[in-house]
Amino acid sequence: MNSLQTVLNYVATPTRGKTPSPSADPVEKSPKPRGDRRRKSSPRASSARHSVRDEEPPEDRFYHPEFQRAFGDARVLMARLAGVLGSSDLHLEPDSTIRALRQRAGKLANFQCPSSRVVGLVGDTGVGKSSLINSLLDFKGLARASSSGKACTCVVTEYAYHDSQDFNIEVHLFDDDELRDQFTELVPAYRYFRQNPPESYTDANERRYCEEKYNLARDTFHTMFPHQFKTVEQLLVAPNLAEIRITERLVAMARELGPSPSHPQVRTSLEDCAALLLSLTSEGPGQGPAIWPFIKKISVFLNSYILSKGLILVDLPGLRDLNSARRNVTERYLLECNEIFAVCPIDRATDDAGVAAVFGLARKARLSNVGIVCTKSDVVKSEEAKNDHEGPKRAEIRDRIDSLATVERELAEIKNELADLPSDQDDDSDGERAERIELSLRKDRKYTLIEKREFELKECIVTARNQFVAGKLKTLYRKGAPTGEVRVFCAGNVDYWANRDEPKTRALKFLKLSGIIEIRRYCISLVSESQLRAAQKYIQDEIPDLISQVDLWLQSGAGSASAEKKQFVRNTLDGLEARLQRGLSGRKSIPHNLERSLVLEFGQKITSQAECRIGVWTKGAAGAAREWETWAHTTYAAFCRNYGEHHTQKAGPRCWNEEAMKVMIHELEEPWNEFLLAVGHHMKTLKQAIEDSFDDAIINLDDALENKLDCLLPLLQRLGSQQRLLVGEVDAAGDKYETELRTLRTNSLSHFRTSYFGQSMEDSYRRCNLDSGVGSWGRRKTIIGRTLGSERLFRKLVTRFKVQLQSLTSELHTEIMAAMEAHLGDIKKSLDLVRDENIALESEKDPAFGKRLAEETGQVKEAMKRVKEAMEREEAATTRGG
């Protein structure tokens, strides 16, 4: 089998000796702005370029200057503490407590908020996604359209951060099963069109659809197997060969001739990375093989500021791709995105079918995080713009056009006056010389004024159109948006790159007008809320937990006690450990039985009702199918071609899957909501059980060892911080579980194509679409009617619903129990510091170190008080401001 690396060698050889360049691509030069005709200013300060890092951060608590200072101070304190912990040879001993403490302090000193958010940009070919992504990343020419513009939009491409100036590219290939699914659709489409003459189709639309599917199959097979295409054609038209055997032969050929998984590709320059990405998503060189038909996803890792905040940008193909496999990849990926932007050109935004498709999916899947980015907002024509608006805005645009024209006429007059002066300046009289200087100065001032008037005119036109289009889009899609709110941005990538490398003093206004800075700021804000929670946990729980560990170590070797007192302390701590073990992980504990409780709730509220109502749901679906059978055969065929979702003048907008599921969705909606309430109750009970177990242990320990243990206070503090950390992890696991349940609800009780119901109907629609000619109308009705009239359809759906719920619940239980065991292990180590005399002796090996550590710990405690006070002041100020 040819390796992916071998194929790549055809098309992308790294250029040696180049260095990364975030916004300077020699392949693609920016047009010079008109303002360059005037003289450049001389001071060095005016030539400084705009820096993305200097852009104003989002207005939220995480980016508040006082919070950022407190956060930074805390990390500095941990670095200091790590330095002191490493100042003794004790940290070199493999099993020493100091070694573990130093490692943890080092991790806390390098703490980065681990949160990430995925933003999906979805749109059809040619809408400007590549340019938008380049601008947001601030890497010019990274994502490029191919010469045809077709291939680049068919592969999902992720852009994520890594802390290196290199570019890493990982290619994820379709596996055999995924290729088999594609071939299962393409093979019959190819054979059917080749085997049926034009007169066999019932109407022109049916023939056009079948021809498009045939062309897709032919082009795909030719691209995948360019040297073997004649053999593939013979295979596809073989009359006595079953389609399943043809499909398996093609899968075997793909496995043998296609690319094999490769290691991540590394490129050291922007130009080389862009060339590699283009080669991966374009036709092969000459008659060589193309790679893109085998690719499911490409991941690009680069050092971009917007990604450094935890953002992942994803370039997604449109939802109207004829290739169902790739369309379905987009649909499934959209369900996992934290934010989705439908991308379209601003001049056709209100009637863009790609945008409508995205909002249609959002409605079906109950996605509330969908917005729109209108590209090419900077492509304006002033003469047309003055007629596009009414009232005061039209008058303002005309006034600005007239004002600009006036200054341009004045400039022309000055040029004429200069031209009338003698050409030989050496013979100028004093008066002529003074006049020439005065005219030159006036000319420069007019150039400056023209540049100002040009920008003001463009700003007026762009802003007016942006506001007008955004308003229409919000009105158009507000009703279908689950939250009733539609976020709309407008982006001008031409203006962004035309001014990106200009001095900041003149470029910034263009960069702001481009809208890129605003979009970038919003994307960063998506990550900041979760980063705030992580930073608060770091300061309020993680650091105090480490300090209490250090205190325990310091006091474990202090003082002396009788053998009887030591035994009493050991017995007390042994009892505490056993009590926590029973409460947190014992067989009868609430955490241990969480999985069984949740599965039982699901069975009582969902499964039991579903199993006795499947017959009713089937009757409802069959009744809907009988209604459709009364439609004209051309209408019926059109709905089959569109997998049950279509719009005709007579039938209106209809969705067969939705109508077939109507009774089921209606009857399970309330039980599902009751199940979610039960999940919330069980998670609340679980957290309360954890808190009660710790509270009980702390109270008993305090009562039993009062005045009998020098290190009682740090031990109690450690138990308290462990309690908060564990509850926080359970909270996070619960949030993840609830997110997964929302996705499960979407998959099980929604009707889009990749939902469980949509997948079950896919084969029936395909079989209908591969039938035509005399009697095809009746055969299609039979296929759909039999599928919807069988209880097997809903029984299979309910089983899949149940199995997936059990799988998610099992993962939740495993995650929570792993957290329990980890924290119980940490607590055991803390208890061992007190009850294990060998560990206690460690603190006596280096008394001078112990003294240094005690002094540093005291200083860290005082400094952390100030850090927390600063956070409290910032929170109070934010609350008052809000």
TrEMBL record:
Residues annotated as domain DUF7605: 616-794
Biased composition annotated in UniProt, kind: Basic and acidic residues: 51-61
Pfam families on file: DUF7605 (PF24564), Dynamin_N (PF00350)
Coiled coil stretches, renumbered: 397-424, 853-880
Endoplasmic reticulum found in the keyword field: no
InterPro entries: DUF7605, Dynamin_N, P-loop_NTPase
Domain Dynamin N-terminal: 119-349
Disordered as annotated region, ranges: 1-61
Keywords (A to Z) from UniProt: Coiled coil
Protein's name according to its UniProt entry: Nuclear GTPase SLIP-GC
UniProt lineage: Eukaryota, Fungi, Dikarya, Ascomycota, Pezizomycotina
